[in-house]
């Protein structure tokens, strides 16, 4: 009986262990997929022609969010030929967060202090230069802007732990965005009710 019980336990335990391994693999794949889906909206690359002496890019960002932007200016018809631009990044209250002059490429980075519309403006010396200048901007916020390789190396984290950390931060950011949208919706509702009250009177 003991031999049968042991053999039964070995068979069942092995099967259970395999099921658990399969569940762990499935959970890992699911977390990786969810993490990629959540990261997607937080990073984007934009390539555009200047066409005017100054062009600004706007982004609505929540408070306490890391922002990293890489930019490169080049000739529209000859991408290997660099062009120079002046760069100015401002917060919602027009406070200058980054400023550079005569740059053909570079990077700006900051952490937002307040929620609102942040902007990055690019300026060329004259209109003729604007017509021949093209600019590429890689804009990353939050989790997408974080150097996870450096964090993993510093804290000795494995790949799964890093993905879990990313997912956790992504969920936190999505929740913050939802709260911000609810706040904006309430503000618009209040304005609408005030307008209706004034019209009624």
Query: Quick check: average pLDDT?
Result: 76
Q: What's the total helix number?
A: 4
Low-pLDDT segments: 1-41
Order of helix and strand elements from N to C terminus:
HEEEEEEEHEHH
Helix fraction, binned, reads 40-55%
Oligomeric status of the shown chains?
Answer: single chain
What would you note in describing this structure?
This protein is α+β, with helices and mostly antiparallel strands. The protein contains 4 helices and 8 strands, in the order H-E-E-E-E-E-E-E-H-E-H-H. It has a 4-stranded antiparallel sheet. A 4-stranded antiparallel sheet has the order 2-7-4-5, with no helix packed on it. Helix 1 crosses helix 4. Residues 1-41 have low confidence and may be disordered.
Descriptors for this entry?
single chain; disordered N terminus; alpha+beta; four-stranded antiparallel β-sheet
Summarize this, please?
The chain has 201 residues and is an alpha+beta fold. It has helices spanning 2-39, 127-132, 148-155, 159-200, and strands spanning 43-49, 54-61, 66-75, 85-90, 96-103, 105-111, 116-123, 133-141. It has a 4-stranded antiparallel beta sheet. Strands 2-7-4-5 form a 4-stranded antiparallel beta sheet, with no helix packed on it.
Could you give the topology of this structure?
Blueprint: H1 2-39, E1 43-49, E2 54-61, E3 66-75, E4 85-90, E5 96-103, E6 105-111, E7 116-123, H2 127-132, E8 133-141, H3 148-155, H4 159-200
Antiparallel strand pairs: 1-8, 2-7, 3-6, 3-8, 4-5, 4-7
Helix pairs in contact: 1-4
């Amino acid at each position: 009986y003991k031999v049968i019980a042991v053999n039964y336990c070995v068979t069942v335990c092995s099967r259970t262990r395999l099921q658990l391994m399969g569940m762990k693999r499935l959970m890992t794949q699911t977390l990786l997929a969810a993490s990629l889906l959540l990261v997607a909206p937080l990073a984007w690359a934009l390539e555009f022609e200047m066409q005017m002496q100054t062009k600004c890019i706007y982004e609505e960002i929540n408070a306490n969010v890391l922002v990293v932007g890489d930019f490169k200016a080049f000739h529209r018809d000859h991408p290997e030929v660099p062009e120079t631009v002046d760069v100015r990044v401002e917060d919602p209250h027009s406070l200058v967060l980054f400023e550079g002059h005569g740059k053909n490429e570079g990077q700006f980075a900051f952490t937002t202090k307040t929620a609102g519309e942040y902007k990055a403006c690019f300026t060329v010396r004259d209109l003729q230069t604007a017509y021949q200048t093209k600019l590429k901007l890689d804009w990353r916020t939050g989790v997408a802007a974080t150097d996870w390789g450096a964090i993993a190396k510093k804290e000795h984290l494995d790949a799964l732990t890093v993905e879990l950390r990313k997912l956790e931060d992504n969920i936190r950011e999505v929740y913050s965005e939802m709260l911000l949208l609810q706040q904006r919706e309430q503000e618009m509702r209040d304005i609408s009710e005030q307008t209706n009250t004034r019209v009624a009177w």
